[in-house]
Amino acid sequence: MFRSVSALLLCVCLLSPGLVHAVTGVAFVHGTGRQTNALDDYWTQDFVNSVRQGLPDTANYLVVNCDFEQYMWDSRAAGCLATQLHGFITGRGITDLVVITHSNGGNVMRWILSNPTYDSRYPTIIQRTRWVNALAPSSAGTPLADAVIAGNMFENALGWLLGYQNDAVRMQQVSWMAYYNQNNLAGTSGRPALPKGFWNVVGSDVSSGVFSGNAYCGGYAQSVGLEFTQNWLAGCSDGFLNCTSQNAAGQLWFYDYQRSSSGYVLNHNQSRRPCFGLDTILRNDL
To answer: Whole-number mean pLDDT of the chain?
Structure first.
């Protein structure tokens, strides 16, 4: 309801006589990892190109490439993100920015929203942001990060998905994120609200049956791997994050099965792919 009201108010403002029309842009913020070509290596061109068709000017998009193997506040993480968002906003005159994050990218963006005095570029970014669409955000961390840092079998099993023992993985340990949420970040229960909407898309399950067509979207091997790791998570999870972590900050937009085609679930890999109409939902939101 609140999301609909916010969108309605935005439309009213844009249509009011005498007001300058907004210039809408969209930014794609990847998750854990050091990216130099996130368009191809993280999101895929099919996903990004589908979503940006919802823009009045399809050239007003940014695919962020940063080093998210660092702590969220690090100059190579939030500093890099701020540089690219601020350059995009000012360079193209963006006044209405929708930010799409995935996984740990939500934490880095939430750091910017939560700490407006930390960097001189943050206020402009916050002011120009309409809202954040957080796809499977790791807002409360994941037990799998604890397992990776402990150096057990997950270190090899999750290398393709999570990375190894870097600072971003260390940061996403459950107790560490609980500390950050209580002391450094806004948007979780009992904490100040975020200055802009942070809307969660929650992945609730993993399908990996060899005869399940939905298991092949985004790659069958990834679905099998996430089915394996789901054994160490709660019943509601996307194979990497518990649903409670994905919805720990901000507001729920929808659980996967509520909006996806045929009510399919989105595992952690599929929530950054054009699977089951997700790209269309995000496109229409612009």
So the answer is: 91
Q: Residue 61: beta bridge partners?
A: 26
- What is the sign, positive or negative, of the torsion defined by CA atoms of 87, 91, 96, 97? negative
Q: What confidence tens digit (pLDDT) does each residue in 32-61 have? A: 999 999 999 999 999 999 999 999 999 999
- Whether residue 168 contacts residue 214, with contact meaning beta carbons closer than 8 Å, is answered with no
Nearest Cα neighbor of 7 from 141, 179, 170, 197 is: 197
The answer to whether the beta carbons of residues 61 and 28 sit under 8 Å apart is yes
C-alpha gyration radius of the chain: 18
Tokens describing residue 123: 């206020």
pLDDT at 229: 87
Q: If you search the block for the tokens 């842009």, which residue do you land on?
A: 25
Q: With 0.85 as the threshold, say if the pTM is over it.
A: yes
- Least confident segment among 2-16, 184-198, 237-251: 2-16
CA dihedral sign, ordered 179, 181, 182, 184: positive
Cα–Cα dist 32/42, whole Å:
10
Tokens in use for 115? Answer: 């700490």
**Rounded to the nearest 5 degrees, what angle is found at the Cα of 68, between the Cα atoms of 228 and 85?**
130
- Residues 187 and 252: their CA atoms lie apart, in Å, by 12
Residue with the two structure tokens 């079998």: 153
Q: With bands split at pLDDT 50, 70 and 90, how would you rate the model's confidence at 148?
A: confident
